[in-house]
Amino acid sequence: MHFRQLLAPALALAASLALWPAQASAGVEKRDIWISNTADLLELCTTPVDDPLRAESINYCMAYIDGAVDYHDAITDHEKLNRLICYPNTANLEQGVLVFIDWAQTNQADKSLMDEPTVIGVVRALEDKWPCS
């Protein structure tokens, strides 16, 4: 009997959570953001100021780069692997994004680099700026 008392509120909560994404997105313009290579991330990170979804694109760019660096740090620290990126303690996310943009724009004509998986492009860019000795 105690289980039935808990079941009704749980089902009501599950139903409201299932409807939440539809309610939250009502009236909001959507654009699928799909990145499969370094060129795609560069495009997101350099979304024009007049693009109505610039904020979302820039936030995605920043989140992707932040996640890539977090993963690099976690895996190298946990597995005691050699670090690829040795950024200074003073480096911040904005600097990392600008480093990526600069590197990617400089190498934009190199199709092999731009076609690489996104995380490889991020690591290459940051490693180029902050190599480990």
Draw up the topology in text.
Layout: H1 2-25, H2 38-45, H3 54-78, H4 93-106, H5 111-114, H6 118-129
Provide a descriptive summary of the structure in words.
The chain is mostly helical. It has one domain: 10k-s Protein, Hypothetical Protein A, Chain A (Orthogonal Bundle), CATH 1.10.890. Helix content is 65%, strand content 0%. The protein has six helices and no strands. Helix 2 crosses helix 3 (54-78), helix 3 crosses helix 4 and helix 4 (93-106) crosses helix 6 (118-129). The protein is globular. Residues 1-17 and 19-29 have low confidence and may be disordered.
Shape: globular
Overall pLDDT confidence: 83
Regions with pLDDT < 50 over 5+ consecutive residues?
1-17, 19-29
What is the percent of helical residues?
55-70%
Instruction: Give the termini distance in whole angstroms.
Output: 66 Å
Oligomer: single chain
Q: Characterize the biggest β-sheet.
A: none
Q: What is the fold named in CATH at topology level?
A: 10k-s Protein, Hypothetical Protein A, Chain A
Task: Assign the CATH architecture.
Answer: Orthogonal Bundle
Radius of gyration: 20 Å
> What is the structural class?
mainly alpha
